[in-house]
């Protein structure tokens, strides 16, 4: 339990970091955790996605694009676990439909 708590704290720290490269690391860590520990992510989905939804609307287009790509990858793994956070995700995704960057829009 201590190890899981520390891992989640690390994820939160990375996802809310000032540097865009560090935020990218957080997005990649979330992807990795979804693949290796989907139960941990499912159990803590609301708290995790409070941080992750911000990356979907990130000011840095590379972070935003990667977050959208990761979301597409993890949706299948998390399935019904996403129910509590679906409204926030839809709002975040919708904001990107009007992006001037075609890669962000496509993601």
Automatic annotation (TrEMBL):
It comes from Nesospiza acunhae. InterPro entries: ARM-like, ARM-type_fold. This is TGRM2 protein. It comes from the Eukaryota. Gene3D superfamilies: Leucine-rich Repeat Variant.
């Amino acid at each position: 339990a201590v190890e899981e708590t520390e891992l989640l704290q690390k994820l939160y720290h990375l996802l809310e970091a000032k540097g865009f490269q560090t935020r990218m690391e957080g997005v990649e860590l979330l992807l990795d955790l979804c693949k290796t520990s989907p139960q941990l992510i499912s159990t803590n989905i609301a708290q995790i996605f409070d941080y992750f939804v911000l990356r979907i609307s990130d000011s840095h287009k590379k972070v935003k694009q990667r977050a959208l790509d990761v979301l597409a990858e993890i949706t299948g793994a998390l399935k019904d676990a996403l129910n509590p956070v679906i409204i926030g995700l839809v709002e975040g995704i919708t904001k990107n439909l009007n992006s001037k960057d075609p890669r962000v829009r496509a993601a």
